[in-house]
Amino acid sequence: xxxxxxxxxxxxxxxxxxxxxxxxxxxxxxxxxxxxxxxxxxxxxxxxxxxxxxxxxxxxxxxxxxxxxxxxxxxxxxxxxxxxxxxxxxxxxxxxxxxxxxxxxxxxxxxxxxxxxxxxxxxxxxxxxxxxxxxxxxxxxxxxxxxxxxxxxxxxxxxxxxxxxxxxxxxxxxxxxxxxxxxxxxxxxxxxxxxxxxxxxxxxxxxxxxxxxxxxxxxxxxxxxxxxxxxxxxxxxxxxxxxxxxxxxxxxxxxxxxxxxxxxxxxxxxxxxxxxxxxxxxxxxxxxxxxxxxxxxxxxxxxxxxxxxxxxxxxxxxxxxx
Length: 322
Known about the structure:
The protein is about 20% helix and about 20% strand.
């Protein structure tokens, strides 16, 4: 996920048709510095914006913006859009780029139930509408002043379902977004999950996120009168099913990565996941006869929700790292 607007691609750079036959075999390697729209070139080169993202310097779109402005140098020369670089290329950015990045903010929100993470859905307000001065936590010690410009390109780095609460990260910084939800991200996230034991497995949840509700969502999760076990669930929940929650379940035809799952108290489980499939915890629970009646995310990487009140937010402090 990236944050800045992608600059228009110059019309002089066009994707060449792939070579065929002997021409492909005899084609000379693409020298570092030559413009090329492919992610990877010959001789182990890689597109500059991709390399900058790999090094944690900027998001790809942010890198493209800097390159277009002349804020990036490769081996001492001003970079060109779409250029390929060798893995050992020396990449430098100007003070303008560093200053622009320093002004980007990352915000931690304790998302309430009934608020969606991203775009407004079915009349429900998005989380960004809560990022206003009056909702800033009074105990936030970060030395930032709120300004409306901080809402520009502020996007959720991950999501929480409408009926879940807890830590939601919103950021302008593409480096943070890549770290949390990039393709190669294995950032662990911790959840407290209140459950009841129905004793009835719901195999349909393996292939449909909607199956946790038996159809269209008409109300938020609650404890129903006919739930057979809503107290001391731990004492009746089979140990072999707890092992399945930790490893052995599949969703959407894909095996899930191992998870840490343990009892926090007799009615509440603690999950630590390194992936985030749609409604993953709810679906996992339904596959083993549990029904989730409350779900709160309390940690992302090394950053804790802590005492942040529901519906309030704070800035990620400069010393905090995910």
